[in-house]
Amino acid sequence: MTGVETLYPFLYDGGGITGHVLSEVRRSTAEKALEIVALRETLAASHGEPLVACARRMGEAFRAGGRLLAFGNGGSGTDAQSLAALFTSPPAPARPLPALSLPQDTAALTALSNDVGFEVVFARQVAAHGRAGDIAVGLSTSGGSANVLRAFGEAARRGLMTVGFAGYDGGAMAEAETIEHLFVVPSASVHRIQEAQTTLFHVLWELTRHAVEGGL
Amino acid sequence: MERRSAADLVRDAFVRRTAPGRGLAEDAEAVARACHDMARRFHRGGRLLVFGEGSAAADAQHVAVEFVHPVLVGRRALPAVSLAGDAATLTAIAGSQGLDAVFSAQLRLLASPADIALGLSADGRCASVLRGLETAAELGALTVALVGGDGGDIARGGVVEHCLIARSADPCVVKEIHVTTYHLLWELVHVFFDQSGLLEPEAVQ
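Output (structure tokens, whole complex):
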């Protein structure tokens, strides 16, 4: 059987496909929507205290004038952009906090990729922008993105606070000694991992906001 | 701000997401129907044009890369592009025609009747997204919107064929429901698309 047959055997039930497809797709949709609801509930229990500890340090870093630098690849790259935008343009009445998204600068990305290599695209930007007391936030579903790991290495060397989001079992990010606060989403689905990571960084922002305002 | 314990803040934050997450499961029929129509457009050679402002601009790029570079090996690349990713284009249009025109102006140049226009707006009130969807509908493209809250002008305007409303007024929670929704849109479009026999007009009614 192909991958699609394995996932959706109802499509191949011998001619009876048309009447049932929409209802089967509907059932599969509901299942996946409930899967992420259940995954989020487990994260509340396992990641709650580490999120608070991370938010308290981020609050101190922002109060001391630190900035946040976010990075990741592909969908995790757009998530880095979303995360930075949440800090700089939060829903009212929260106050804006300084953040930069590193994957959105196509000039820097293509220059560094062309001249040096893709594995340095975030590390070199961290070297250019990062100062001791800033906050480096990297996202990877596999936990193994080489350019994200290199950026954490550079951030740790420069005295930035380091925060990572990974999936599966955390991959190489779980082994790295350069990531102080690591949040792993224990799922084997890239999509559910990204959805849960989005919740985690939203909650982290909310807690950081309380911390900055002295309420955490 | 009222002082609450850290544990309470964490619990409240996660609990706030449960009902909207279950709401998406209840909307599975609408999601499935949107996917079926989207798959028909791709089958006819259409492209997906995605747009949103602010944080939804990042989502627009995320949606496009899901289709162009599938996470599952063996799924074919489908044509999708974000209209929210090019700062030169966006600022040029915003400067000459106003922010509300940033997507509609691009759609007038790029959209054809076979295409799919997908707009994202957390509160359903984003004027540029509404104008983009109106323009896409005028051009004959399929219109799909991911919104939240009470659905806003986008849900009420009557121009959108598939309007999926996340059941929360919190823009962060709405975004999370949208991320799951567009992951499902991608996955289910492929389920239909891989079975091209299902995409004939009479196949599924």
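The longest strand of chain B covers residues 116-121.
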